[in-house]
Amino acid sequence: MIKAAVFDMDGLMIDSEPFWRQAQLEVFPTLGVKINLQDTIDTTGIRIDQIVEQYFRQQPWETHSCDDVCSMILNRVIELVKEHKPLMPGLFHSLETCQQLGLRIALASSSPMVLIQATLDALELDGVFEAVLSAEGLPYGKPHPEVYLNAANELEVSPLECVALEDSFTGLLAAKAAQMKTIVIPDANHANQPRFVIADHKLNSLEEITPELLQAL
Predict the structure, then answer these.
(1) Which one of 16, 145, 158, 189 is at 20 to 30 Å from 37 when CA atoms are compared?
(2) 139-155 pLDDT tens trace
(3) What Å distances lie between residue 19 and 71, 154, 207, CA to CA?
(4) Which CATH class is domain 4-15+88-215?
(5) pTM, rounded to two decimals
(6) What CATH number matches the domain at 17-84, 1.10.10.10, 3.30.470.20, 1.20.1250.20, 1.10.150.240?
């Protein structure tokens, strides 16, 4: 029986993935790094410091530290989130459905806490989540399961009694590795990829979350 729901943030709660891509496409070329849109799509769900370190190994630059580059990208994403408030369809509906069932609710994101808090402020969601966790300070981000395991621990429930809601395959792998039930809502452009079959349910939108679907997990 499911006792808790753990939400990803980027791409699930807010349509911020285009902002991460835009910020990378703006910042990396100023460092002499060759990058294209598909490159940014391929790293969806991976922590930004890991992405920056990957590009530094492949195409090293001299003008800024990796930490500086992470901050440049992150600050641009925060600007875009505050400006556009890109709420995903069905977010409030899905949260209310979980609340109606008495589920405990957490947020577990690869994003830095400063972006998580900026997003919660922009969407007026402060106080909705019992636990808010970032993989920022962990040894590994998603697809490592630690941020999801930490969320279950914060909620004082077994991971086996949690459902994770994700949009990316990277996040889905993290939730599966944590042994949680999984609901994935991929970007429409990637929804037909066979690899998403490992999820317990694949939906088109958070609007499709129902009490019956959650109770049947």
Answers:
(1) 145
(2) 999 999 999 999 999 99
(3) 14, 30, 23
(4) alpha beta
(5) 0.86
(6) 1.10.150.240
